[in-house]
Specification:
139 residues; rod-shaped; alpha+beta; four-stranded mixed β-sheet; single chain
Length: 139
């Protein structure tokens, strides 16, 4: 069975490539652009806790090792920092200073988790359609 797969013309190939590129850029933005940057260092956060200037903290589990802590100061300002993997000392200090601590589990969307696989699949399909028909034959 020697079925021929039609080759896409140049404009369709360019459109497919740009679509894959746009999808990859959008997925990168979704994964990396959702979280705000840290506004304070971890040391400054601990110093604020020890001085009693932190009213409440929300800790969001990170997708890898670190966690993000967003905290409200007693003067009403909100800041954030990145907690290290082992942040038990910070939790202990927060409890000693009677700071309200809320822990949130960060869940990734299905689309964000599937994006790398879909991008590779799209690239593979694009390259397969880009190849000339003779290159697909096995001798």
């Amino acid at each position: 069975m020697n079925a021929k797969i039609p080759i896409l013309n140049g404009k369709v190939q360019i459109a497919a490539f740009l679509t894959i590129l746009l999808a990859a850029a959008a997925s990168w933005w979704m994964v990396s652009g959702n979280s705000p940057r840290a506004t304070a260092t971890y040391s400054r956060f601990l110093q604020s806790v020890e001085e009693g200037r932190v009213a409440s903290v929300t800790i969001a589990e990170g997708p890898f090792q670190a966690s993000r802590a967003t905290y409200r100061l007693t003067d009403g300002r909100t800041e954030s920092t990145i907690l290290p993997k082992d942040h038990q000392d910070a939790i202990r200090t927060l409890h000693q200073k009677q700071v309200n601590v809320e822990i949130e589990a960060r869940s990734g969307s299905v689309l964000a988790n599937a994006t790398p696989f879909l991008a590779l699949l799209g690239l593979w399909l694009f390259l397969m359609l880009w190849m000339p028909p003779g290159a697909r034959r096995v001798p």
